[in-house]
User: Fold Ethylmalonyl-CoA decarboxylase from Xenopus tropicalis.
Amino acid sequence: MGIFVCRNSLRMLNVRWLYHRCLSLYNSNHGFNEAKIKEKLAQFTGGSVDLSKMDNGIAEICINNPSRMNAFTGTMMIELEERISDLENWKNGKGLIVYGAENTFCSGSDLNAVKAISNPQEGMMMCMLMQNTLTRLQRLPLISVALIQGKALGGGAELCTACDFRLMTEGSEIRFVHKQMGLVPGWGGAARLIHLIGSRHALKLLSGALRVHPENALELGLADNILLGTEDGFLSEAENWIMPYIKGPSDVSRAVKKVIISGREQKLEDALRTEKEIFGTVWGGLANLQALAKGTKHK
Ligand SMILES: CCC(=O)SCCNC(=O)CCNC(=O)[C@H](O)C(C)(C)COP(=O)(O)OP(=O)(O)OC[C@H]1O[C@@H](n2cnc3c(N)ncnc32)[C@H](O)[C@@H]1OP(=O)(O)O
Assistant:
């Protein structure tokens, strides 16, 4: 019995490991040494990445390092990866809101860590970790929203592009400040920005390190809405905003996000095949049968 349990747990661990390997971009075949870069990043402490999962199927991730305008320390990069793993295993989840503590989003990577990891090899290794994590965030079967209050700078601007939607509050800004730091985005923010607003607009934002205010972001298609409420109400406003998109049973909501991911990321023929597979998971399912039995009309 003990051996059986042990073997089963090992199989589960293997499946989980393989699953993460599939969702991630980089592994040891790409020269990525995850353990080594995590060991290095663990030296840069401070702040936290907090996850709460609610009964209504919405989770919240709080980037929490307000004394440094929610900059990502090394330990926070490691924690973000752990929180995404947790969400990958949350089978009832439907939505995710990513926000920053104390009414500002995130000021990018912690400059103390940036200074200490100044050689290109370690810099690229840190990028691989963050690209893996943010790609996994983007591929979660949850509808995700970045709630941007205050500033989303550098890596903070990159983080918000990994969410499906961006809600900005009045006076907030998204700014790819990398060029002013002698850098380019490395957490996948340039590639994702081009998908969102096209290469001409992306080039302007990156080469001019332009401040993108809410109205401008809305026009560009970078933001999806501007929230006009008060500081203590923005989280619940974001929750209300996401609600119509996650209404109904989680398996259907998750299937919707999955067909979007495959349509976005795969070649047409592969995407069509994946879509058929996902369709098979909901066809004849409980929600489908209930809708048929009710004679649902769409007036
Ligand atoms: C992936 C690559 C990247 O992310 S490169 C981009 C890195 N980020 C930056 O360069 C942002 C640098 N910070 C700033 O421009 C300003 O601090 C901003 C965010 C505009 C806030 O200005 P302000 O409202 O005047 O506040 P402040 O400068 O007094 O900051 C408060 C305390 O927070 C700190 N802080 C801020 N950002 C970071 C950061 N990224 N890394 C480490 N610390 C940061 C400031 O140093 C300041 O700390 P202290 O109160 O002086 O101890």
Summary: The first strand starts at residue 48 and ends at 53.
